[in-house]
Write a structure and sequence with these properties.
Distance between the termini: 84 Å
Number of domains: 2
CATH class of the largest domain: Alpha Beta
Largest sheet: 8 strands, antiparallel
Shape: elongated
Strand order of the largest sheet: 4-9-11-10-6-7-5-8
CATH superfamily of the largest domain: Regulatory factor, effector binding domain
CATH architecture of the largest domain: Alpha-Beta Barrel
Oligomer: single chain
CATH topology of the largest domain: Multidrug-efflux Transporter 1 Regulator Bmrr, Chain A
Strand content: 15-25%
Order of helices and strands: EHHEEHHHEEHEEEEHEE
Number of strands: 11
Length: about 260
């Protein structure tokens, strides 16, 4: 056996990994021993493998998945960009959550001025999108809105988001474009009318959940049975309106008592 080979314990200290980690990475084919004694099963590594071991430890500390680390070690270019995008998205969600929490800390649990309104049925063109889980609902909604805006001829199209009460996984999101005329590339439907509990949300879309909470609480306290979907009527154009001034009407269909 090559005298330059290091036993697993010594190599673990050199590469700043635990023996358990080294065995796991070997099973995955990520960092295999240079030599395994067929009689004892002892594992040995070359000193040159220390750079790979240290690289694995560094990248894991940066929350890079093992599958991506394998690509990095193999020299595949550009694979870390996807990890960067994922971390950026997670950071944005954390910032949104923090902003909502700070609002609750400053103002208390949300409340809203709620009215009961009667809405007519409307002819609409609809687009649907699927979110893998509730945290992706915003992205799915934006995708459906973009598709409807692309085919609408209206300068300021009237758009209504429709969201199920039960946010099970996956979540199907529907966006309706109010239009009396057919819209190319979009399915036609009729949005039912009826009685709705309505409240107005002013602020970023990612804090609409605070107003939805207040609206559902209002219905529960007054023993109004509710049915879905929850409607979000987008009054403002986010392209020209600051996030803290966006106006959205939330509406929940009410069943008769």
């Amino acid at each position: 056996m090559d005298e330059e080979l290091l036993p697993i314990g010594q190599f673990a200290r050199l590469g700043r990994l635990s023996i358990k980690q080294l065995r796991h990475y070997a099973q995955l084919g990520l960092l295999e021993p240079a030599y395994v004694d067929e009689h004892t099963g002892y594992r040995y590594y070359r000193r040159e493998q220390a750079r790979d071991a240290l690289s694995v430890g560094l990248l894991r500390s940066l929350d890079v998945p093992l599958t991506v680390i394998a690509q990095v070690l193999s020299g595949t270019a550009g694979v870390l960009e996807g990890v960067h995008e994922r971390l950026e998205a997670e950071l944005a969600k954390r910032r949104s959550t923090l902003a909502a929490l700070e609002r609750v800390m400053a103002e208390g649990l949300p409340s809203a001025s709620v009215t009961v309104v009667t809405e007519p049925a409307r002819r609409v063109a609809v687009a649907t999108a699927t979110a893998a889980d509730p945290s992706d609902v915003g992205g799915a909604t934006s995708d459906a809105i973009a598709r409807l805006r692309a085919v609408s001829s209206a300068a300021a199209p009237e758009l209504i988001g429709l969201f199920p009460l039960d946010l099970s996984e996956p979540v199907t999101v529907t966006v309706a474009l109010v239009s009396e005329e057919p819209v190319a590339g979009a399915e036609l439907d009729v949005l039912p009318g009826g009685r709705f509990a309505s409240a107005t949300h002013v602020g970023p879309y990612d804090q609409i959940g605070l107003t939805a909470y207040a609206l559902l609480s209002w219905c529960a306290e007054r023993h109004y049975p509710v049915r879905g979907p929850i409607r979000e009527v987008y009054v403002s154009d986010p392209a020209t309106t600051p996030p803290d001034r966006l106006i959205t009407h939330l509406m929940i269909p009410l069943e008769e008592q």
